[in-house]
């Protein structure tokens, strides 16, 4: 039985001193701590016998995911050079982008983002079926389409995919429960964590899901 594993990595911490919801906005980069988190995860992936031979690295096109992926790639490519193998380049795909959100650019709980305001309160009345932006169903469908394509493209191999909390957890929740809707407060996808999903190449059925947090102790 041939299997493809997709390692979904969440980006590292973002420099955001004003605490705004940056969503898909440009110009939000990794903080120094975020770069250390990406470095820790890059070192973990390079030390792992499976992931250090990954066939490709993909990322959301946003700044923070590409920066995280570049740091991971620097570790993987150093190992590939040592083995006399060609280096990998970063690929991006719009289907991995952060979820759309009507609060983007606002500070949640303050000013225009204050939840007590009538126009905002009605948006967050149901955490399981958010009405403040892109639906969980659509998020899961676009990530699922990406995954299905890559299962075939990288048949029997491993790839690393750097994306965001919402796409990772929404897709995982769909695979584990049959539905993408969930309570956003109960997500389990820490910054720079790795959610690894192994699929049967023929049926595209899930064989296993594992989770590690290599950057948990990064200060």
Write the layout of secondary structure elements.
Layout: E1 3-10, H1 32-47, E2 56-59, H2 63-82, E3 90-92, H3 118-121, H4 136-153, E4 158-163, H5 165-177, E5 194-200, E6 206-212
Helix pairs in contact: 1-2, 4-5
Organism: Bifidobacterium moraviense
GO cellular component, one term: cytoplasm
GO molecular function: phosphatase activity
**Structural class by SSE content:** alpha/beta
Q: Terminal Cα separation, in Å?
A: 42 Å
Number of helices: 5
**Rg, Cα atoms, Å:** 18 Å
Please tell me the total number of domains: 1
Strand order of the largest sheet: 3-2-4-1-5-6
What value does the average pLDDT take? 89
CATH topology title? Rossmann fold
| Helical residues, percent | 25-40%
Helix and strand sequence: EHEHEHHEHEE
Uncertain parts: 109-117
CATH class: Alpha Beta
Report the sheet-strand fraction.
15-25%
Number of strands: 6
- Supply the CATH superfamily name: Phosphoglycerate mutase-like
Protein name: Phosphoglycerate mutase
GO molecular function: phosphatase activity
Organism: Bifidobacterium moraviense
Pfam families: His_Phos_1
How would you sum up this structure, described in words?
Pfam families: His_Phos_1. InterPro entries: His_Pase_superF_clade-1 (IPR013078), His_PPase_superfam (IPR029033), PGM_Phosphatase (IPR050275). GO terms for molecular function: phosphatase activity. This is Phosphoglycerate mutase. The structure is a single chain. With 219 residues, the chain is an alpha/beta fold. It has one domain: Rossmann fold (3-Layer(aba) Sandwich). It is 32% helix and 16% strand. It is built from five helices and six strands; from the N terminus they run E-H-E-H-E-H-H-E-H-E-E. A six-stranded mixed beta sheet has the order 3-2-4-1-5-6. Strand 2, helix 2 and strand 3 form a beta-alpha-beta unit. Helix 4 crosses helix 5.
């Amino acid at each position: 039985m041939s299997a493809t594993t997709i390692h979904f990595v969440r980006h590292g911490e973002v420099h955001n001193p004003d605490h705004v919801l940056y969503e898909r906005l440009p110009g939000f980069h990794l903080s120094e701590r975020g770069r250390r988190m990406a470095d820790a995860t890059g070192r973990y992936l390079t030390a792992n016998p499976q992931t250090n031979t990954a066939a490709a690295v993909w990322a959301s096109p946003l700044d923070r995911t590409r920066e995280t992926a570049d740091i991971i790639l620097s570790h993987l490519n150093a190992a590939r050079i040592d083995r006399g193998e060609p280096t990998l380049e970063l690929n991006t795909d719009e289907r991995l982008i952060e979820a759309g959100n009507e609060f983007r650019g606002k500070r949640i709980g303050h000013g225009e983002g204050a939840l007590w305001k009538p126009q905002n309160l009605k948006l967050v009345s149901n955490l399981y079926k958010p009405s403040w932006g892109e639906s969980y169903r659509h998020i899961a469908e676009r990530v699922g389409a990406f995954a299905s394509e890559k299962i075939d493209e990288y048949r029997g191999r491993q790839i690393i995919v750097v994306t965001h909390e919402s796409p990772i957890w929404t897709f995982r929740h769909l695979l584990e429960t049959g539905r993408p809707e969930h309570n956003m407060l109960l997500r389990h996808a820490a910054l720079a964590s790795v959610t690894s999903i192994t699929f049967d190449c023929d049926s595209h059925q899930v064989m296993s899901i594992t989770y590690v947090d290599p950057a948990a102790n990064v200060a």
